[in-house]
């Protein structure tokens, strides 16, 4: 039977003593951006469905998508798309048992973060 009375035994590492590592933070960020991309995709599908439904409904959806909030969501979705792509490439590299050393893994994390910012800016400027 499990020991229900833990007494004075120490707990697992907790937020007060655990130092987050870049690889764990980028892993969490990959999951967040994946879910954020789902929300942006739903917003885009809503806009397309409104376009196929009626002019009044499309005007409402278009007003939301082209507002400052819609622009912000689409800009952040673009960044999330680039970040998620680069993080996926990083995992493909790791799946081939390459660059698994701590310093190289951190370098790949910084490349994914910095590269996604640069690619987002370039995409906005040139499209």
How would you briefly describe this protein structure?
With 127 residues, this protein is mostly helical.
Labels describing this entry:
4 helices; 127 residues; 3 helical TM bundles of succinate and fumarate reductases; mainly alpha; 0% strand
Describe the structure.
The chain is mainly alpha-helical. The protein has one domain: Up-down Bundle (3 helical TM bundles of succinate and fumarate reductases), CATH 1.20.1300. The protein has 4 helices and no strands. The mean pLDDT is 90.
Helix content: over 70%
Structural class label:
mainly alpha
CATH superfamily membership: Fumarate reductase/succinate dehydrogenase, transmembrane subunit
Number of helices: 4
Element string (H = helix, E = strand): HHHH
According to CATH, what is the topology? 3 helical TM bundles of succinate and fumarate reductases
Query: What is the CATH C-level name?
Result: Mainly Alpha
Q: Give the termini distance in whole angstroms.
A: 63 Å
By DSSP, the count of extended strands is 0
Shape: extended
Low-confidence stretches are none
Under the CATH scheme, which architecture would be assigned? Up-down Bundle
Count the domains: 1
Please indicate the percent range of residues in DSSP E strands (runs of 2 or more). Answer: under 5%
Radius of gyration: 21 Å
Mean pLDDT: 90
Quaternary organisation of the protein chains: single chain
